[in-house]
Amino acid sequence: MEVRTERIPSRQRQGVCLSALGAAAPRTIPVLAGYFVLGLGYGIYVESLGLPVWLPMLMGTVVYGGSLEFVLASLLLGAFSPLSAFLMALMIQARHLFYGLAMLERYKGYGWRSAYMIFAMSDETFSITCSAQPPEGVDRGWFMFFITLLDQLYWVLSAGLGAVVGSVLPFSTEGVDFVMTAMFTVIFLNQWEKDPQHYSALIGVAAPLACLALFGPGSFLLPSMGCILVLLLVLRRPIEAAEAQNQPKKQEVDP
Amino acid sequence: MTAVQMGLTVAVCAAATMITRFLPFLIFSGKDRQPPEAVQYLGRVLPAAIFGMLVVYCLKNVTPFEGSRGIPEALALLATVALHKWKHQTLLSIAGGTLCYVLLVQLVF
């Protein structure tokens, strides 16, 4: 892979890094606030399940995807089912495919930094790096690299802090596990407002409910994912028609 | 689950995540950049369905006919939705809903 940074003396290179770090840090402040609160909650949550204190940081490092990490922690309490975990992870993280498509050009050509930026893509990092322009004279590769690195550090450290805090809290953490339910509910509501049609959201609730009634809580995930995919593909025509019908309205509001 | 099984489960989830992150760069870098229509369609409609499923997943162990009959869950869910409709602050809604549930299960039910 061709690397965009030229070979430069190490002191000069240090300057390039530092100025990129200086430019990147302020852009990540909103992410710091969000990750701190959510990461803390995530750490406390995992600890409250009785899992090891270091686990949130480990998952934050190797998986690094908030939604999946919450689900993964709860999967670790159930029966061993790697296929179910694998498909669940694919479904939850599928949106990254589209982040990648959007970043094909931007993330190309920075060598190991490209690899890291792709490895540590998150919703929040994507939302900054896909829009933020580095100030003039600041190296774009290092700028995007530091945004990615800082965001992941915020998440991992907050999760670790949460786990430690959870283990020493003087009061009971019973019920803290609802943080996962609340988080997915809010994301669901946000998605509902963004979508021009609601069939897919309704399928996403109805199909798993039916599968839960049929198969029970231990084994309803795989059939749920199957049903959702099949229904979405079978109903593609009406759903796309509903999308098209509601699209113009949105454009009228948007000047 | 044994420690080895836990490690494998984490590894499997990490691998699936890396597939979703690296795949576009492996297959689409270069010439033909548009993914198939069906994939684009799923990209638009899948998120809402997945997060709906995850809400159901979170509530999978609620027993409507025994114990607390899912009343604390229902109330906390209601509080989360109401708070979100009112203030529209993602973190506030999550924190408020969780606090509501913690108070309900520790003090009331």
Topology (SSEs and partners):
The complex is a heterodimer of chains A (255) and B (109).
Chain A: H1 10-27, H2 29-48, H3 55-62, H4 66-75, H5 82-93, H6 95-103, H7 112-119, H8 123-129, H9 140-168, H10 178-194, H11 199-215, H12 221-234, H13 236-253
Helix pairs in contact in A: 1-9, 2-4, 2-9, 3-9, 4-5, 7-9, 8-9, 11-12
Chain B: H1 3-27, H2 37-58, H3 71-87, H4 90-108
Helix pairs in contact in B: 3-4
Report on this structure:
The complex is a heterodimer of chains A (about 260) and B (about 110). Helix content of chain A is about 75%, strand content about 0%. Chain A has about 260 residues and is mostly helical. Chain A folds into 2 domains: about 10-170, no CATH class; about 195-255, no CATH class. Chain A is globular. Chain A starts with 9 loop residues before the first helix and ends with a helix. Chain B has about 110 residues and is mainly α. Chain B has 2 domains: about 1-30; about 35-110, no CATH class. Chain B has helices at about 5-25, 35-60, 70-85, 90-109. In chain B, helix 3 (about 70-85) packs antiparallel against helix 4 (about 90-110). The longest helix of chain B has 25 residues, at about 5-25. Chains A and B meet through helix 2, helix 3, helix 4, helix 5 and helix 6 of A and helix 1, helix 2, helix 3 and helix 4 of B.
Short description:
By secondary structure, chain A is mainly α. Chain A has helices at residues 10-27, 29-48, 55-62, 66-75, 82-93, 95-103, 112-119, 123-129, 140-168, 178-194, 199-215, 221-234, 236-253.
> Largest interface, and how many residues on either side?
A-B, 91 and 70 residues
Task: Return the string of H and E elements of chain B.
Answer: HHHH
In DSSP terms (H or I, runs of 4 or more residues), the helix count of chain B works out at 4
Question: What average pLDDT do the residues of chain B reach?
Answer: 89
From the N-terminal CA to the C-terminal CA of chain B, the straight-line distance is 30 Å
Average of the residue pLDDT scores of chain A:
88
Total individual domains of chain A = 2
- Name the helix and strand elements of chain A from N-terminus to C-terminus, one letter apiece: HHHHHHHHHHHHH
Which stretches of chain B are poorly predicted, pLDDT < 50 over at least 5 residues?
none
Give the helix proportion of chain A (percent range). Answer: over 70%
What is the tally of helical segments of chain A?
13
